[in-house]
Amino acid sequence: MSGKALHYFFGGNTARGFFSLYDSNFAGLEKVFILKGGPGTGKSTLMKNIANDWQEKGYDVEFIHCASDSDSVDGVIFPALKIGIVDGTEPHVIEPKAPGAIEEYVNLGNAWNSQQLSTKKDDIIQLMNEKDEAYAQAYHTYAEALAVHDEWEEIYIANMDFEKLNVLTEEIKTTFFGEIHLNKEADVRHRFLGAATPIGAVDYVPNLTDNIRKRYFLKGRPGSGKSTLLKKLASTAEERGLDVEIYHCGFDPNSLDMVILRELGIAIFDSTAPHEYFPSREGDEIIDLYHVAVFPRTDEIYEEQILGISKRYRNKMNEGTACLAKAKKSHDKLEAIYHEAVDFSIVEGIQKEIENTIIELVEGSSVNEFS
Known about the structure:
Layout: E1 5-9, E2 11-14, E3 17-20, H1 22-26, E4 31-36, H2 43-56, E5 61-66, E6 69-78, E7 83-87, E8 103-107, H3 114-118, H4 121-157, H5 162-177, E9 188-192, E10 194-197, E11 200-203, H6 205-208, E12 214-219, H7 226-239, E13 244-248, E14 256-261, E15 266-270, E16 284-288, H8 289-293, H9 298-301, H10 303-340, H11 344-364
Helix pairs in contact: 4-10, 5-7
């Protein structure tokens, strides 16, 4: 039987620039292959090929998607094997913790024809500059959008009954945790459930919550306390020794969008745009913070102001997406240049070397009952 696949992001194009949560997800691995090489050298395909092979063998795999192209992956992890493979090129340059002992560099640049690339030097430099400028403009525009979003939040923060919100938080804590205290250190992972991409917002909520028994859908407005509630639940879970998956907002990584407690079979997440979902199976439940803790008729009283803010916010977000699309256009042209200069038979050989190393590590492990 095939293993299960988990899909998420560890990096994001955010209002605070490119934001990486790499360390949290690759912590504890005993072997990490860091791939180097330009665009179009087959890094994503190599990782997918190896991941699919081990998944077919029955191993669970974590696919870490690229925020700049969600069809590509920036990394894969085999939890049972404690092995990972990751793209170590810009913007997610990775500093190894134990070079050689844990991390191993794999240079796919050995597969390209440098002489052929040198004839395209001017084109490569121009496209690199165009891509960098487009990303810089995207981050600047998202920062402007965040400022507009803060205006939106201020309306609801000024009209919140925080006592009711605190009472609700304590009730949820009791429902989730009861008297549970585990005698172990919590395993805490920080990730993104979604990302701002060149085609708009993309998320993996259905996949991440697929096997979760009880799902709580947080509804509300900007500033109605969803992220604060999630932070308090995550903190309580960690204090009690429960493993926690903490999913940050792909727009503002200082905010949270979801907390998953797999040991308890619980997921609770911000289920508003751009990742809006509704109950679809037994065990699903809505928690509406607007109706619980926001003063009545706030929407109606501030309707005109909210409409203006939401329009400005949406326009800025669309501008940011357009900038990411422009960056991807330049990146695709770069990929085409490098692709023409790569000998993919060499890449296939590198893939085989990685596969053989993984097999040797598994067979040589004292824990060889993986399969």
